[in-house]
User: Fold this.
Amino acid sequence: MIPTIAEAARLIAAKKVSPVEFATDRLAKAEALNPAIHAFIRFTPEIALAQAKAAEARQMAGTLKGPLDGIPIGHKDIYETAGVPTTGHSRVLIDHVPQADAAAVRAWGGAGAVMLGKLATHEFAWGGPSFDLPWPPARNPWNTDHFTGGSSSGTGAAIAAGVILGGTGSDTGGSIRGPASLCGTAGIKPTYGLCSRMGVLPLSHSLDTVGPLAWTVEDCAILLDALAGHDPVDPSSAPRPKPDLLRGLGGGVKGLRIGVIRHFHETDCPVSPGMAAGIAHAADTLRALGAEITDVTLPPLADFNAAGWLILAADAFAVHEPWLHTKYRDYGEILRERLALAATISAADYLQAQRRRRELCDAVAKVMEGCDLLLTAAQPGEAPLITKMGKWTSFEVPNFTIPFNLTGQPALTVCAGFGAGGLPVGVQLVGRPFEDATVLCAGHAYETATSWRARRPAMAG
Assistant:
């Protein structure tokens, strides 16, 4: 049985599990499964062994740093790692070896986590799944013919397969919450500004957020607690005291007001029967646990998508414009053509999208005056076949996650059951800005009241 981070931490603290043996076992499993799921683009066994030996020395000395000490993790390959290539899963940066770790890599390394390697992503966190890059796209461990979601694709796959216990993701339009939903894990996009983005390859400076994926909400809380806090070097970092995301985790949902955005999944973008059942199950379970469930109305989902995708595309072109002049053919076809389209966006278009963004944020804030949390779908349904993911597929169907990139609110995906083909479905719980602890508490309450976490892909072990 694969332990969660919380369970493994207790076993390590009790000296019942050797960090070296644990890391060695997970690394061997990862290497064995990678030809099927392509979750890793690079393993780092020397680093993993050194970090595991250091954790084991602290274990023997009784000086463990906390719940991440000795825990096997991986980093999405947009997180810079000193001395280890960080490519963005792209030929453009295939020889890029950073001099320093990203802030998040330092934070987890400083907490004792053991890095097994670098994880697959969509090219620069936007272009994928692509088959014309130096590494293949990740595959879904529940059925390798199916998509993982993106762009934190390798992270979602590796956690679902049980080869790492947690990993970094990034979320600009849903890139943590999408893989969490389709791969059946938990994943949280924190409040914009809660965690430092220093050392993470950018996509959209006004939307990018870093955060964790893990098997359970409790594990996400442990991982996020190690990431959260003000970083004066990051201009987007909020100058606020570091929150305690673990103390109230078991507080339950009694008395919380949860608004279901029913028109999102029934009218604006009708979801699969499995996803609809998952939303209904989540609402019924949270009501039974003591929450007050009501329906709420926001602006149409299409309005959020129109503003969000235009802003993301324009920001992405601004990031990549210098390389496009010199390395255009080094990009994969999907990202190359998306960036070419983004080049046609005018300043007037961008400003109108930002104006609409402000109106949408105000509308959501008004609804949140009467709600503690919102509940909606995380994806339209179960994971599609990876071969059905075309160049423009992600633009053709409204996106349930990008509204909360626009608003900057914390949003958690948690598994809410299984649909067609035994593939998982996930729902989103969304809180007010900087009330990440409330979101995690509600997700943990739902998760522990259900049996979904007992079910793993057949390849996991």
Remarks:
- The longest strand covers residues 411-418.
- Residues 1 and 8 are 11 Å apart (CA to CA).
- The chain has a mean pLDDT of 97.
